[in-house]
Structures are given as C-alpha cells and as structure tokens.
Amino acid sequence: MIKFTIITLFREAIEPYLQSSMMEKAVRKGLAEFDFVNLREFGLGPHRSVDDTPYGGGDGMLLRCEPVFNAIESVKAKDLSAKVIIPTPVGEIWNQSLAREFALGFGAFRSAAARDLAPAARGDGPAGRGPELSANPHYIILCPHYEGYDERILSLVDYKVSLGKYVLTGGELPALIIIDSVVRLIPGVLGGETSAEIESFSDGDNLEYPQYTRPEDFRGMKVPEVLLSGNHGEIAKWREEHSGKA
Ligand code: 6GU
Q1: Does domain 2-183 correspond to CATH entry 3.30.2310.20?
Q2: How remote is the CA of residue 168 from the centroid of ligand 1, in Å?
Q3: Class of CATH domain 206-245
Q4: Burial class (CB in 10 A: 0-12, 13-18, 19+), 77
Q5: 207-217 pLDDT, tens per residue?
Q6: Is 87 close to ligand 1, i.e. is its CB under 6 Å away?
Q7: Which residue ranges in the chain fall short of pLDDT 70?
Q8: What H or E segment, with its residue span, contains residue 162?
Q9: N or C terminus of the chain with fewer C-beta within 10 Å?
Q10: Which residues are registered as beta bridge partners of 92?
C-alpha cells in the first residue's frame, strides 16, 4: 500500500481527481491511500494566517514556517518514515525514472539543495545510508502557494520536484501529476503488469507505437495494412519501427 498525505489549502482542487478513474480504483483495491491535511488548521492567530511578507522586501507573500512545520510534524508523529515532497519550480525535473523510484519506495536520493539545507534531517533520512526500499511508502506532499515559501521549510523536505520550465500558481496540479504517475506504476492498478515490467520503464525511450481500433477506414484514414494481417512477427517489427524510440 502506497500512501500520500497532501498538505494543502485547496483540498477541493485535488480531491475530485483522486476520486475518479484509476486513482479511485487503486484506493478501492487497497493499493493506494490518500489523506489530506488542511494547512489552515495550523494557521496562526484568529485568521489562521499561513503566510507573511518577505524580509528584505519584495512582492507577494510567503508560506511561513510555523504552520508548515506543525502540519508536517503532525503527520510524522504518526509515521516517522513518511518522506516529504515539495513541488517547486526549482526542484529536480520529474520524469519516469523518478516516478518509478517513488513507486518502488526508494528513498535513495534527495535534491542537492534539500540535502545541503537539511543536515539534521539527513541523519534519520535515507541519504548516506544508500538505497532503501519501503514496501509501504508514505509520501507527504506539501503544496506551496502564494509567491513561495520560507527557505527554512526545506529543512523538512526530502525531495524538491519540478514539473518543468514554467511556473504554476501552486502545488496542487503538480501533486496530482506526481501521484498519478507513481500510482499507475503500482502492480495491480492498471491491470496485469508485474513489477519487473515496471522496472523496464524508462525515461521515455520506449514511447508507445501508434494504435488503432475500429473502424478500419475512418473518413478515408486507413488502419495500416500490417496490423490487419495477423502476422505477429511483422506486427512486432512495425511497432518497433514506429515506437517513439530515438
Ligand atoms: Cl512543481 N510548482 C510550481 N508552482 N510551478 C511549477 C512546478 C511546480 N513545476 C513547474 N512549474
């Protein structure tokens, strides 16, 4: 069972996706569990404030330390093994290898910046002790918002993840993408795959070949003849030639 605890101010932006389609199926089959922590509940003062203006000036508001530390510590109090992921445009770019490592429960790496900033966390974390597999990995995804977060929050973070070279308003969409790409690799979620097959996935050098279903001729666009031939050798060859391989 893989578990994700999502710390967010916008649960309603995330939850419908996790209650649909394959994510819902993974939960129903007991293969994945999703939990939410409302960051607002850890906010300060009568307004449960979670952000403040940056020292040194500048635009916007930053997530402040106290609510975030208290929220993460409330989850870790129940499960010390939980690893913290922060979606951030300055993180390590997410890819299929990372998704696979998370699905396999690896704690073998952390982003360099988080490593540098987290000497305390390093002692009880996986870094320095080599690859570590967990049969029941638990990931806490901290969804930042506003213009950013207090840098000291990174001392609690194991993995900084970016989706690519562009900027989003918050961590909710990245959280969903991380979860979806990891959970679909859990054996039994999609269908009959084995973990060995999961291991064979790579960074997109085995992109899929073109596929077709009925009808054979749609508005003059025909299905390639070889796929109708029943010749499995020729079909395999065609698919190999037309797969996304470089
Ligand atoms: Cl993970 N977060 C935000 N806010 N923007 C991004 C991103 C993440 N990845 C690409 N852009």
Answers
A1: no
A2: 5
A3: mainly alpha
A4: exposed
A5: 789 999 999 99
A6: yes
A7: 107-133, 192-206, 245-246
A8: strand 159-162
A9: C
A10: 161
**Do the Cβ atoms of 50 and 72 come closer than 8 Å?**
no
Residue type, 152: R
Amino acid at 23: M
Q: Is 212 helix (H, G, I), strand (E, B) or coil?
A: coil
Task: Using DSSP bridges, classify how beta strands 148-149 and 32-38 pair: parallel, antiparallel or unpaired.
Answer: unpaired
Residue 88 in contact with ligand 1 by CB distance below 6 A: yes
Domain ranges across the chain? 2-183, 206-245
Q: Locate the DSSP E strands across 9-158.
A: 32-38, 51-52, 62-63, 83-93, 138-142, 148-149
- Whether 164 is in the pocket of ligand 1, judged by its Cβ within 6 Å, is yes
Residue 162 CB–ligand 1 contact under 6 Å? yes
Work out the widest C-alpha separation in the chain, in whole angstroms: 71
Encode pLDDT of 62-119 as tens digits: 999 999 999 999 999 999 999 999 999 999 999 999 999 999 987 544 443 344 444 4
Atom of ligand 1 at shortest range from CA of 170: 4
Spacing of C-alpha 145 from chain mean position: 17
What pLDDT does 206 receive? 61
Q: Residue whose CA is closest, atom 4 of ligand 1?
A: 168
The pair of structure tokens assigned to 201 is 């996935």
CA of 36 to the centre of ligand 1 (A): 20
34 Cα–ligand 1 center, Å = 21
Q: Which two tokens stand for residue 198?
A: 């999961």
Indicate whether residue 171 lines ligand 1 (CB < 6 A).
yes
Tokens 């025909």 locate to 222
